[in-house]
Amino acid sequence: MSTISVPSTKTEKLVGKRVRRKEDPRLLTGTATYVEDLKLPDLHHAAIVRSPHGAARINRIDTSAAKALPGVVAVFTGADVRDIGGVPCGVTLPGLKVPKHHVLAQNRVYYVGHAVAVVVATDRYIARDAADLIEVDYDPTPAVTDPEKAMAESSPVVHPDFGSNIAFVYEQAGGDVDTAFAEADVVVKQRITSQRLIPTALETRGVVAQWHKGERHITLWSSTQIPHLMRSLVAGMLGIAENDLRVITPEVGGGFGSKLNVYAEEALIAWVAMNIGKPVKWIESRRENYMCTIHGRGHVDYYELAAKRDGTITGMRVKLIQDLGAYHQLLTPLIPVLSVLMLPGLYRFRNVKAELVGVFTNAVPTDAYRGAGRPEATHAIERIVDMLAAELKMDPLELRLKNFIKNEEFPFSTATGLLYDSGNYSAPVFKAAEIVGYKKLREEQKAARAEGRLMGIGVSTYGEVCAMGPSAAMPAGGWESATVRVEPSGKVTVLTGTSPHGQGEETTFAQIVADELGVSLDDVRIVHGDTAVVQYGIGTFGSRNTAVGGAALYEALQEVKAKLTRFGAMMLQTDDVLYENGCCHSPSNGKQVTLQQISGQAYLATKLPPQTEPGISVTKFWEPPNFTFPFGAHICVTEVDRDTGHIDIKRYVCVDDCGKLINPLLVAGQVHGGVAQGLGQALWEQAVYDDSGQLITGELTDYAVPKATMMPWIESEHTETPSPVNPLGVKGVGEAGTIGCSPAMVNSVVDALSPLGVKHIDMPLTSEKIWKLIHAGVN
Amino acid sequence: MTVEGSHTIAVPPERAYQLLLDPKILAQCMPGCDELVTTAPGEYQMKMKVTLASLAGLFSGKVRISDENPPDSYRMVVDGTGKIGFVRGEGLIQLSLAGTGTLITYKGQAQVGGTIAAVGSRLVDTTSRMMIRKFFDRLADLAAKT
């Protein structure tokens, strides 16, 4: 053993720096491996026959022509798969009605896209052709797709056994709302909708299943956000032991919550592979993606806000109607409950009463989509607060500042039972106002109005509940896991229980490792998404990767450093050692050993420190004590064209407080993406079902996902209030842009049109809708 | 979706009525019609190729005629399914004397589903109007020849 005195060169800290993503070279050169890229010997291909009806009875299915097509290996219908367990709903609520969700329809179909049969063939095209040869004799029945109509006594009932479409009613109240309203000087009321959206991940879903007959073991590749939960749930559906199933999640091209789920196809394709003894691949087409992968939002809400004449908000009364679709997917009923939790926003009022009704409709289920319940609530809160400002003729910024929870009031218990641990809500408001030049803009607006121009300034100040979350508040654990392994060569391997789908955590996590262990980014490999390799984890959603997964990693790294220090002390023959910058060094004798030397010794193990095991590998499961509560302010300046109804976004300023920034470049990416999806909802996107249950926005030709050319220049800044709940001080930023954006956008356009008497507009703000508002009364 | 409109052809109502219910004539006039056979009085089985923008597919279906009131009116029910979806519709066709010719007016409700609805809903209206116009243009041609 030798000691060297060459100082380590790794002194530069990477946390907080704009580090380019380690993932990008493989993504940009097309060398990443997605589910669709998998090639296995004798791989077979599945195609799924789906219902063209919103509601129908199935009289008969004739598969003979499909089975006769050369290359077709098998066709299965509902009767064949009746014994596979139902698609799981992971939520329990009092009185929740949960329809049995078979992987293939039994004698009824409940929505357009409902899977009816699966064909397996030697070739993908043969499978598709054979699917077209299957004749299903349907007896269409009346459908209902509007959640409010579905609540009516006279409505067709989606699941006739339940007698009505009401799946659950959830009520929550805090304080004394009735008194608040009785004593209010002003009450504003508005019906506010948050339309159904289609998540549109760049990569559609896909599943490959391989049955290893000899080992009686199955490997399932799936484009998912939750490989471990999927393993537990799919094993349960198939009735096999959890450790007989391995789930591998290769590269995932986006999810936005739509892959935070277990779908019928995962169990179905696994079952088919076991049944025919061949590996089977199913890749979702874009049309399938639009009609049978979950949608987001789908709210019709009634908000009432009570206030004093001076602008003090005193209470809020809300009725939320959630369009659930025909079934519960994994978290369907939970999403609007998150809306209820969010209701007080950043405001101090303590009187809240909410009634939430979950309603079945003949449509694909809704579930988590970027923000999941929180954009719906934030949009409505920030709209109704703006309406109050208009009613009181107060500046909307001033009204907000007046009602914010003050810095000295933290920790603050909200009326909906959350404990906001920290915050400085006025800081991002002041910063955003300064960047945009708020006061000057209001002057410009006056001048513009005098000229007859329709200029608007919209503000939203949002709060978030994220870094999901303490396990007690979660349906399936809220902790996260990390293993840090220093290899004999000194390279570092991290196994994380999270499973990213575009977040760039191979970079952020490597930055954390690099700083803690003093190694270079290239020395760190982050491994995720393979249940046979990685210890159990919860997954990636709810802005939790860094705040929970990163915290687990940080804690594991501290134990690794402690062990490295014990080895260092032994090797340097002194207790006076410090681990710093990739070395153990002794201030007293000036000697040091490098990480490589220590790790080599740890695995050679010719000599070990007292009570110390060989090797360096630490696994930590970290439980967060609370959610994190990011916040921020978005300001959007618009001008509306009177002749065309076109909305021109002049400025978009956002100041987000997501705690400490690990990598500002990636944070900017998340903010930009979030704002893009927020603008998508505010201006263009909507999933539309007609009254018979047809999804008439079934393709990208009819569903307006924002394009790069439609985006404004985003001026993104931050304030940094570290979260006290995790050692990194981070809060999460994946959803912030989406949550903050839509109310700022809509408030801006309503402000622009306010001289015409416009008080509220439901999203999306299409040019047609705006033109009609401008020209209402002209004819 | 409401389907309605009117066309004039240059033969008197009695002749127009005959033409409209003659499977051979119908097969010639219906755009994309591959086959149309009478299966029972007032019932036809048909196969028809439909093209809607980038979608194309063979439909097979039934046409049923009811409430026959020659030469003034009849009712028609169409039920077709194919790879790209389904079409169902029901309508009233009325004939009246217009000069020496016949004014044919139709009004009904149609429903489309499946891929046609998902992908082509914005085009269904214009495409169906175009197909109806083609049908009547051909019918008028044939009427003029016979």
Q: What's the β-strand tally of chain B?
A: 7
Write out the strand line-up for the largest beta sheet of chain B, numbering strands in chain order.
Answer: 1-7-6-5-4-3-2
Which radius of gyration of chain A do the C-alpha atoms yield?
28 Å
* Named CATH architecture of chain B: 2-Layer Sandwich
Number of E-type strands of chain A = 28
> Runs of chain A with pLDDT <50, length 5+?
1-8
Query: Which outline of chain B best applies?
Result: globular
Distance between the termini of chain A: 92 Å
Largest sheet features of chain A: 7 strands, mixed
- Which spans of chain B have pLDDT < 50 for at least 5 consecutive residues? none
Would you write up a description of this structure?
The complex is a heterodimer of chains A (779) and B (146). Chain A has 779 residues and is an alpha+beta fold. In chain A, 28% of the residues lie in helices and 23% in strands. Chain A has 19 helices and 28 strands. In chain A, helix 17 links the parallel strand 27 and strand 28. The termini of chain A are far apart. Chain B has a single domain, classed as START domain (Alpha-D-Glucose-1,6-Bisphosphate, Chain A, domain 4), CATH 3.30.530. Chain B has three helices and seven strands, in the order βααββββββα. In chain B, a hairpin with a 3-residue loop joins strand 4 and strand 5. Chain B is globular, with a radius of gyration of 15 Å. The termini of chain B are far apart. The relative contact order of chain B is 0.24. The mean pLDDT of chain B is 89. The interface between A and B is medium-sized, with 19 and 15 residues.
Summarize the structure.
The complex is a heterodimer of chains A (779) and B (146). With 779 residues, chain A is α+β, with helices and mostly antiparallel strands. Chain A is 28% helix and 23% strand.
